[in-house]
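#data-curation
PF: Archiving a pair of folding outputs for the training set. Convention for this channel: one message per protein, sequence first, structure tokens after, nothing in between. First:
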Amino acid sequence: MTDFERGNEEDWVGRPSKSQRKRDMVALQELGESLIELAPEQLGRLNLHEDLVEAIRFFHTLKDKEARRRQQQFIGTVMRKIDPVPLREALEELDQLRFQQAEAFHQIEIWRDALVEGDAEVLTELVGRFGLEPQQLRQLARLAAAEKAAGKPSKNGRALFRLLRQSFEREQALD
């Protein structure tokens, strides 16, 4: 009969089960995989442990599928030394920022498309909101509409989008 069977359960109290430890390790590996997907400048903003940054950089140099898999497991091992809570919070903030940027991009597309279609209300709103010149907006929208009707690439549509994006980003920087 083993010690555990004789009643030494107090040695096991508060200690996570083997299954729970494995789930925790898999969660850390998944967190490491999400770090691998980040761009180098995003990684730089996270203030990661140097060993982890080095392991992630090394992962990107590997070509062999099996070597990449082993490196991902190693990244999970390195992750055990790090408190994952602040890291998860930072990744959530990055996801939120990406979502906000995508929302802004879509809004700017909507404004551009409305201007190209000749929506005067949107023109008035953008002139008031960003202080843009109405004549410049009308001219770019008119040229973009002509390009669209002719089936040509929309050089002026892209210029209109850039103008709106720069104005929007300037407004966001002031907030």
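PF: Second:
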Amino acid sequence: MPKILFVMTGADFWTLADGTKHPTGFWAEEAAAPYEAFTAAGYEVVVATPGGVVPTVDKSSLAPEFNGGQEGADKVAATLDSITALQHPIRLDDVDLADYAAVFYPGGHGPMEDLAVDATSGGLLIDALNSGRPLAVVCHGPAALLAATKADGTNAFADYKVAAFTDDEETQSGFAERAKWLLESRLVEAGVDVQVGEPWVPNVVVDRNLITGQNPASAAPLAAEVLKKLG
């Protein structure tokens, strides 16, 4: 069975500008919806995290208001409970890219804490980009792109068209004024061509083998684009 690698945050908090540690992790829908799509298409999902720690779901992402009501919240929670790979992640250091048909980075605020500065993840992203394999990243997952620095000091994703959680969405979610930095702004500073869509509306951008999504609502359509590329 071909495999798809989920590279996920190992952080269960996000350090805000005042030093407060805000509880977070990965966003439920952004792992659950692609998992369901990929496994239904016959792929095995393998999870990798920094240090091989079991990833933490952001509890707020399981709330009814973020899942179309209680039924949707129960469904996404049940999906996460069924993903045994989440309970048995491998270490990011042990990933062999050759084992995987595609690479996917879910979001949540967790990647802002660890993957944004993780050199191992940054190297994997560069290798995946260069390999031609589908590389998919959604919502706050593009924070990981900030660690993809080439030998000359430039970002490997400079000039790529990318969708990512926008400064406007961060403002509407109530975190912009409390954050150390904002994802859209930092990506632009790194030379990434951020394609801003309407807040909270699905926005998926495909540039060569890179597939990116702006927000949680983009996770399912992003997965569909990955499967299209895999044929």
